[in-house]
Amino acid sequence: MKEKGIPVLECPVKKALEVVGGKWKLQIVNQVGNDVRRYGELKRLLPDISEKMLIQELKSLVEFGILEKRSYHEIPPRVEYVLTERGRKVLPLIEAIKTFGLQMQEA
Questions:
Q1: How far apart are CA 31 and CA 48, in angstroms?
Q2: Which of 20, 5, 39 is nearest to 96 (CA)?
Q3: 52 with 39: CB under 8 angstroms?
């Protein structure tokens, strides 16, 4: 099946949604933003996400190169997440979605 001349399997929108689609990934990227976030902070900032889902989504974002996971060999163990250069490219998309959401609230 083709969409505007691009085979669906090669569609860039499909690839983008594979990387940051779903209920939680964009929210996680938004909460990390330009900051360094620890796991516990993310859990507090996203209270509706289950622990299992947060761990799964963080792992996926690290695998896709959107987040960098920094582990420190301390007691207690400390793990931090920060956006990579690739991850920072998602922030303008989030801003566009926020703008769209505000416009939809006004409608």
A1: 14
A2: 20
A3: no
| Bigger pLDDT: 15 vs 54 | 54
Is 1 contained in some domain?
A: no
CATH number, domain containing residue 85: 1.10.10.10
Per the structure, the count of domains in the chain is 1
Environment class of 81 (CB within 10 Å of its CB; exposed 0-12, middle 13-18, buried 19+): buried
**Whole-angstrom Cα distance, residue 5 to residue 79?**
44
Q: What is the pTM of this model?
A: 0.85
Q: What letter would DSSP give residue 18?
A: H
Geometric angle at alpha carbon 42, from 38 and 47, rounded to 5°: 150
Is 54 part of a structural domain of the chain? yes
Torsions phi, psi of 42, nearest 5?
A: -65, -40
More confident residue, 105 or 36: 36
